[in-house]
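Limitations
The structure tokens in this dataset are predictions for the assembled complex, not deposited experimental models. Users should treat interface geometry with appropriate caution, especially where small molecules or nucleic acid strands are included. An illustrative entry is reproduced here so readers can see what is and is not provided.
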Amino acid sequence: MTGVFVCGCGRDKRTTRSRSAGKPAVSWMEMVKKEAGFPLLFGGENLHTPKGIALAARRAKEKKLSKLLLGGCPTVISEAYAHAISQGAGVPVGAIEFVLIPPGATPAEAARLIRSARAGLDLLPAFEKRRVPIGKDVLVMGGGAAGALAARKIAALGLRATLVEKTDRVAEGNGFGVEAALGAEAEVLTGTRLASLEGGVGNFTARLEGASGVNERRFGAVVIATGVRTGSPVSEPFARGRVVPLSELEAHVEGLARRDRPRHIAIILDARIEEGKASSEAAIRTALSIRSRFAAELSILLHDVRVSGAGLEALYDQARESGISFMKYDGEPRIAVSGGGVIVRCRDSVLGEDIEVSCGLAAVSVYGLPSPADKTLADAVGVGIDALGRMQENNVHLLPGLAGREGVFVVGACRGETYAPSIARDVRDVALSVRTLLFRKSMEVELSHPVVDGDKCVLCLTCVRSCPFRAMRVDAKEKKADCIPEACRKCGICAGECPAKAIELPAHSDRIVLARAGA
Amino acid sequence: MNGFTIQCPTAKIVYQKQRRQDPDKTGKRSEAFKGTPNQLMKNYLVIGAGIAGCSAALDLALQGNAVTVVEKTSRIGGKVLSYCCKATDSCSRCGVCVAHERISAALRQPNVTILAGARIETVRPDGARTLVKGFSSNPAFRYRACVDCGACIAACPQKCISRYSRGGLIFYSIDYSSCRLHAGRKCAACVEACSMDALRADGSESPFSLPVDRVLVATGHETFDPVVKPRLGYRRIAGVMTGFEAEQTLSGSMHLEGAGKGPARNVAFIQCVGSRDPGIGRNFCSSICCAYALRMARILKARRPETEVTVYYIDIQNFDKAFTPLRAELQGMGVRFVRGVPFSVARASSGNLRLLIEDPQGARATAEHDAVVLSVGMEASGSSARTATLFGLDRDEFGFLKPRAPGVRVAGTCAEPQGIADSVASARAAALEMLA
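Predicted assembly:
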């Protein structure tokens, strides 16, 4: 049952002033009560005070109200107020609605506003709640440094982590100074890939394809840490023995006979896309090491030296003092292999002239080349892609590790972060999110998600494609689209996009919207 | 006396409630949480109610812990509240809105107690815990009880209560320097005016004594003051402002004020003012200045495309998830990037500002602009030495804090210069480590 509480603080004062006469015979509130055509449970002043709240809460309890409509000035219409009255009255915050009565509203206007709001609220169905159990298992995709650390951190929280790696090798002890074997803390499945990920937060069903066939497993959350392709490339701009990946440069020089070692080596960053501080740091450290071990001349060609991390500026100074030359260029460099060497042509950004650097050996960082994420995997897990084709949309509300699909997280190079301290930090951030999510044994979901009319639905999949949270799926048995209530955030995009007008949000059904509009 | 402290009934009620709700605690423990006993009982102290502190407090409280946040100043929220949203027709991911959401959530979180105008006197070990003693200022707001009615603002005879409201974050704060009650005089106008019992006042200060399990230091930074570099003309020449001041201007107005009349037509951003400068002992990159300067350049260009914007830089740092398209977009909008930073700003006879730039060959070039934004970086806060001594922390050569003592963590810009999204991530990472 709906109870209507209207606060009339200062209304009479205002009307008096405007009429420049004495106190009207009938007060504003009395007139509202008459106009409304139904009884008000509260029609006085000072509803916002503790006394007013206590009174309203008591009346709501006495009359066993399930819905409250509160009308008044902006003080009454505040979130803090809703929480206060909800606690006292035992009515969920979702069933409390407000109607703003603008200052200077005549009793007739106020009554009209209250009537239409009440009509809408009356039509609002009572939503059932469902408890959804939450799984304590976490799937970590990718056995690189980020994935291994994520599995470790999640296991340390008392959750069960399963690490899935596509190749047959997990990069244990890679980076972050962790050396112990991972197998003791987490389940490790190598040579396995994810075929599909169904369900929603707390209850994902993953189909894992391994050597022993397909295996269906349930997980509460999923962490994606699939990295980028860093294997030894042979295609442009790399050339065997002349242009090598930066990560392999030092080993390559070491492997050469003394007389074959080049006297001049160029390291090229920002070749196709702008790189981060991790690349600058790696280039400088590699250059310093090669210079001291093999006494070669080193040039680092880059757009900008990226030094926005602790100690990186000092490292840059050290490199310049030791004689490593930095050449800052604009645009794309042209790398050509000719005879016994490599010629790099680019436009020097300081001089503003085209320059030519010839060297015996060049290195290009793979992070400076476009390395788009596996689109199939991104689609399957529902993380979206940014403008550079990497995992995770470029949305500040998701940073650093969230994805549009709740319960799915992204860390590491697959989302474009290559700086080890930042990855280590992001992994902890994600582990905290996982813990917050799986801390509860179950979660309560209000079943106010969109309803699909099976007679109208033609399975065009527009809703499945347009849902930013991956909450829509196909119900194969009923042959219609269907919503996963725990993943749905009630944004209404599916209802708006459906060409057959088959989807409706029960809290915003046509009847309720029309009633609210006073029609 | 200190009924509002960590042993306060709120914390106990919350704990008891959770015990009742969780069948694991009454019967046998679930497999998953065997390794983490007694998590609901931890008491946490967070120093600093900026974005890092509020963020960590929120996350610790969401895990069922009682968290007290002490804030030195009278206004909670820290510096992030002075920054402007840097969106044009599309978001530029500055994170100011995220900060407002998180601070607002921390204010509303029942397990979080925030003490404004607080100072810490002693920190000493107390068994397995740490006992932190100090004072917090009165009158103090109970932020969750406030319904934003404005009665206290109207009642204050000194007009020292102000309201902050932006993006769903609404709170009041008291300027203690002019408050009569805080000065020890007889006045309780605000307390009497409040019908929600949201203001508390006994005496000018209330002592607190908190036995805490873990401490997070998130005391933030100070903005570099470019008067140290007098040739840049800051505070001497009209039209020269810091990036921080430009943010404040742009959060309330559409344009920057130049040296002449009306909106600035030709704006220069000078990067690395007080960063990457060994001459003044600041040989580090502040990492945020490229981000805010380029984002502000973007909004200046978007709001008034005929505005000329030039960015003088040493190296542009990569600050966005998809930085390559962002930089291309800026260049496409006509933002000019010039390598090399001017070393002097003077007033030209035309009334404009003349910038002197030395090019790599040693030749001097000049450029004229009518507004100059000095992209100032961050510096360690002046009280970081005292904070370090109190909590047993190390400081790096530039004064930023590093954790040394067990049970104490450092997050946000007091640890390393960083932007909003990074501060939040570092606070959450520290919160996770503190839960263990």
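Some entries come with short summary sentences. For this one: Confidence is low (pLDDT under 50) at residues 14-20 of chain A.
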